[in-house]
Amino acid sequence: MKLTAEQEKMLAGKKGKGTQKAMEILVGLGDIYDADSLIPIQSAHISGISMKTSGEAGLNFIKELVENKAKVSVPTTINPAGMDLQKWEEMGVPKDFAEKQKEMVEAYRQIGAEPTCTCSPYLLDQKPSYGDHLAWSESSAIVYVNSVVGARTNREGGPSALASAITGLTPKYGYHLDENRQGSLRVNVDSSLFENEKTFPYSVLGYWIGQNHPEEVPVIESVNPSPKQHKALGAGMGASGAVTLYHIPKVTPEAKNNPKICETEKEVNFGKKEFESIIEKLNQTSNPDLICLGCPHFSLEELEEIISSEFKEEKEIWVCLSRELKEKADSKGLTSQLERKNVKLVCDTCMVVAPLSEMDYESIGVNSTKAAHYAPSLNEVEVQLAPIDKLIK
Ligand code: F3S
């Protein structure tokens, strides 16, 4: 890979040990993927923030960067942590876990990352734009920004996104290049499954695509999702496979700008049989201890929609969202309305990266295929997978 004189200095340690370590990661990655150069990025988003998923190794890695005085050089957001940073005691999170989790988030704050603790950073005030190059690592957010915003990011891991945040650079390969953004598989869907305003069928469709066609750039026909439905679709795809980008003819921005990007000869069909196969695979129980909405983290629009719902009184219900949006919900009076219905707005974390089994939950109800995919293995809980209406009533 060809480096500029400035980049050579970074690699030689002339800009500090933290920057050197970051450059070593990026140069190694660029060599593996045959990138010819590094390109500047507009923002980074880093996953692996929860102590539940990254453990001591993740904590030591970021602490070492702090000791080496590394700082981010582009706007940087971080994924959910393992607990609500303000209400962890109320949630029942063990104290030793909480202490380490606070240390982890503080270390990210010290290197200059915004402690956003959300997997939907594209819902925050500072958003990426069409054509931006990014280094993001959260599969659901990656699919959303590539497909719905038209920005460009590879499926980064936590360490490579962090290295890019520090240097402001990423290797030029994969989804940064036009040729890898061409649609490669047409997905014809039975549109009768998508006739209402629900997110659930989109989550199931996304999961089915990722499971059966994990390496493709799908071109999905006959749907026109709302933002919350795009969010559910991308999260499903990113969970069951390595899908990073999809197009919808006349709907998603690159398909609108360049209809040829949707041209492909391969095609598959998604109908009732395919839909039911996913429910059958992921659904394990019918009477969960806890109902968790907000995978990916809820938008204000989604919160406003559930406000008039009747909730099961005896059930504990969490709605996971970013602190920034929770503060907006507070000022609109939405939080108090939901709390009166026994619904807890949980910030900074989610049902997959919080230590649920250590908090004595044995089963959860979710409307997200991504949560249903990860919660049994990461959290050792059984899952009910169903649309919101079925879970809460
Ligand atoms: Fe977000 Fe947790 Fe789902 S990080 S995408 S709410 S598994």
Largest sheet: 5 strands, parallel
Gyration radius (Cα, Å) is 21 Å
Indicate the mean pLDDT.
Answer: 96
Helix and strand element order = HHEEHEHHEHHEEHEHHEHEHEHHEEHEH
Helix content bin: 40-55%
Could you write a compact summary of the structure shown?
This protein has 16 helices and 13 strands.
Structure in words:
This protein is α/β, with parallel strands linked by helices. The chain has 16 helices and 13 strands. It has helices at residues 5-11, 17-32, 51-67, 88-91, 95-110, 139-149, 158-167, 200-212, 227-240, 253-257, 272-282, 300-306, 323-331, 334-340, 369-379, 388-392; strands at 38-40, 43-46, 76-78, 134-136, 169-171, 185-189, 218-221, 267-270, 290-293, 316-321, 343-347, 363-366, 382-385. Helix 8 (200-212) links the parallel strand 6 and strand 7 (218-221). The N and C termini lie far apart (57 Å). 51% of the residues are buried. The protein binds FE3-S4 cluster (F3S). FE3-S4 cluster binds next to helix 15.
